[in-house]
Amino acid sequence: MPHSRPWRRRLAAITALALLAVTLTVPTGPAAARASGYQALIRRASYGVPHITARDFGSLGFGVGYAQAEDNICLIAENVATVRAQRTRWFGPTGEDGSNITSDLFHQKAIDDRTVERLLTGPRDGIHAPSQEVRDQVRGFAAGYNAYLRRTGPARLTDPACAGRPWVRPITELDIWRIHWATMVRAGSAALADGIIAAAPPAVGPPHQPAGSSARQPGQSTRKQTGAAGPEQAGEISGQLPAPKATAVVKARDGAPAGLGSNAYGLGSDATVSGAGMLLANPHFPWDGPERFYRMHLKVPGRYDVEGAALVGDPLVEIGHNGRLAWSHTVSTARRFVWQKLTLVPGDPTSYLHDGKPRKMTARTVAVNGSGARRTLYDTHFGPVVLVPGVFDWTADTAYAISDPNAANLRALDGWLAMGRAQTIRELRAELDRRQFLPWVNVIAADRFGAALYADHSVVPRVTDRLAAACIPPAWRDLYATTGQAVLDGSRSRCALGRDPDAAVPGILGPAHLPVLVRRDYVTNSNDSYWLANPARPLTGFPRVIGDERTERSLRTRLGVDQVRRRLAGSDGLPGTRFTVDRLWAVTLGNRTYAGELVRDDLVKVCTKHPVAAASDGTSTDLTAACKALGGWDLRVDLDSRGAHLFSEFTLAGGLRFADRFDPAAPLTTPRRLAADDPEVRTALADAVRRLAGIPLDARLGDLQTEPRGDRRIPIHGGRPEPGAFNMAVDMLVPGVGYPKVRHGTSYLMAVELGPDGPSGRQLLTYSQSANPNSPWYADQTTLYSRKGWDTIKYTERQLRADPNLVSYRVGERRA
Length: 816
Known about the structure:
Radius of gyration: 26 Å
Distance between the termini: 38 Å
CATH topology of the domain at 591-725: Penicillin amidase (Acylase) alpha subunit, N-terminal domain
CATH architecture of the domain at 591-725: Orthogonal Bundle
Strand content: 15-25%
Low-confidence stretches: 1-33, 204-240
Mean pLDDT: 91
Shape: globular
Organism: Micromonospora fulviviridis
Number of strands: 31
Region (Disordered): 201-242
Signal peptide: 1-31
């Protein structure tokens, strides 16, 4: 392990400091534990992965908070600044992912409304309000983070991103709950933050409509428009706001948060050599920022024992396994909110009719301390009023609000705690049915007994077929049919979302309306809808709000199924006809490019026949070198693959045009033939050649696609989803250079088998455990990923103690 000896010396110092505050001999029992103090054992295995054991959930949370602060304190501190509505104060009005002003106004509104505080009240049953166990875990996490910060001191932090910065401060459990809530609304209210902030009634001035993108949405435009804001009564604001992006809201293919995705396989007894269940977890998340995963193994003896990963700042494992069950998540296609079309009271654009009676909107001026930002925001009994220029406008007659069921969802930590305790697919299904906590993801799981599960049990607004037929106005029916976005008639109470009798809470679809499939062979998902979780048993007949059926699948979905089918047929070049862990790893990182397999040969014929083509700007372009590079390409996105970048740019330029149509009777093999006679194919290739000017068209992918770590550039394999890569790496082309930074893609990898002697397998965090460039765990797993290596599952004591780099220390303190 890199730098293991210096790190052992550092741990010895940490241990000595920590033990000063630890009570080593303590009474037993939950009440005694809460009274005596926090105490956790942290055992750091290879690559810095903490295995944390504690006697109660408060102490477990303390250990998690302490360990995550050691590795990623800057990420957590910045996330806290976000939910405290302090981004503009500390980072300026414009952030990398959008407007900090918009972010601050959105979060300040939640603070002013006491949104999280209200959700923390009620019976502590883990459904209506968080349980005591989870509250203890969150409280302990904040205490552990604060203990590390107090003992280290902001000025002595080793991460230059935040060392000595004034925004690195002690945190509270309320901060952690607010971070958790922000994750819940990531695909709903938060995705529409621009529209919520921009909404203003026409009677008091036109809405503020500068161009730009949604707040905190990676990869979207952050262009600003200058100009004065409206008068204070309409919502005065200092600084410039991005306006909502109509195309992002209306034309999105599904309800997924921007920039996120995943692959997952659940393999049952008929698909594995051992007959035990097996799982592939392959989430695709950002490689930088607060949405990074963090590997950890958490244990309260006799009560909880789970290994896996969670987003940095979250106190419980979200993707992982226990001794008999493993699970992962993929981003679901279901919509997370519904539009409510408001019929306004004539002459009063801030009042709307409901069952013929006027109701006044709630107007509140939100002011962000330290930034000067002020805005009057408008709410209805459905939720906030939202503006999307040219689509959902606020006129004298009509306005639009949204209903976001996840805005009342604080159930997820209890849900993941329950998942970690489930021992079988049957028990897992019962917890999913009872809690309905997943904000925007599917579940793919497998158990020791060889059952595999797919379920979209996420929080979905209760838009049944009957409600859609009766309550979506005619002008909006095509939008619902094509995208799943529902615009309901908000003037009639009978068009309310209502409650399914089996639903955990009002306003969402109950389990009877949600797709679920249990198989003995396999289930899979790569961010398309539930329809073909297993093609042998298509799931059909569900409300459109959840996803589409009998429609074209993405190339990544098609490749994902094809890989399983070839493995079970023994036609993929690997031994046998079933999966082992090593074969599952080899399939996942096989780096096939499905579109290349379909059309490359025909594309070479096109450019051989037409060696000169006009680019989009009319420039005549020689395709000879491109043709040669494509002909020599191995159809993969491995480090040694030459020409893979050219095919990717050709695809992004719109060249992937098919001559045949999608056939719902053959959804995994159509379309498949290149439209060779379409001149746009040649134009796209010419555009790709021009974009790659100064970069050899036959260069090795590993020489172009890299990830910086200090002064090193680590070569990265994998490719974009548009050409059909399963192992994703999404990056931006730097002209004349290549792709020097991965934006998002394969992040946490886990291939686990649930055998009779306990779980075993492989796992890896592609961007490494720590974002701190001075950490010994800043680049080690990234280097390992570059060569398709792995770390082993270390769930049992035997597995953990066999690690030659294992270092143990205790942390804790007395409780106030």
